[in-house]
């Protein structure tokens, strides 16, 4: 194990070199968003004298207790509003500038971080000959409370602005790590994928990345009028009005989180994710799907897909089954659709049917719409992840997030979840990681072992990643046509 020092715009930084890879962790890409900078767009980072050690992850954004499912026994991370850090993995030996892949984590815009072991970039950097970056960004009310109508000192979508500033940091600094700033791919899952939909639409993000891979998340945003209603209810819970706005900059973070948790007790029907990107003039002036349809992300090639049983992550046992009225309210809240009762009638009323409804109506439908929107302006490749391990408490179905260890090539972690890694699983991981990294290199996920045709509305070619890996033309066409009335 050796240390490696590089110089970036802020100063010298020291990483750790081991097993063919150098990692630099906990690099600040912005000034700490605390005090007067709370609820504002991020500011460029300050520099330092001497050499800064980058041996450990930085703090994560304040959130409810982090999900332990994928912690793999790691020590609970430190939470702090001073959370705008990123991490870099690169091969030790670099002969020419390498493609860069920037990961944006999920967590419903309320949770998650770049510190999760599944997101370790070692395997992707080593086996794919690329530079991997993972980032934190502000979450919940700190990142997505719509406050710009309050005036100077308050911005909306600071969590998205964090992501933009991280990508600007990559443009300025990634060459020092061996990366090519002219070949940057963003990839993300769930809220990370939804963030990418917003980045594709944001004027401030234009030119900062060149390709995108979206896993289990389509265009997702709130209209300003709805976000204003949420913000007003939130401020009422804190006892804040126009005469004491300064309190917002002084409350403990724990109080802000508590007020966010209590929003669902309000009489108003708020969306299932009350904190998410907001359509507003300064940052996200056009709803993402509309902007993408209009060519705002022209020439940015795209991979997009879903898992076969996304909803199984959220509907796991009979105790979670919703009564019909509650199910309708939930579906309206997460999809924004009014005619959900018509859809509900096409599925069994049991827990399996409700999980399938969420899979199809929320995840698959959104992915299809975004794929169609972008395919008119750039090449798009569609996939579906089908692999499962019957009987396992999580991987028993191809649930939400189940593809992540395969994309990152981090199957070595799965025995800690009671999974025995079989050769077929390693083949699947190699195929997915290889496709994502071929895409990062060339803009096409096809490899010598896995030709992959682009998606169009005639063939609708979809790569199925399961025990078998093969393309299908318009999978489940009858369901798609029934559900989408031929619109997708």
TrEMBL record:
Protein name: Carboxylesterase/lipase family protein
Organism: Saccharibacillus sacchari
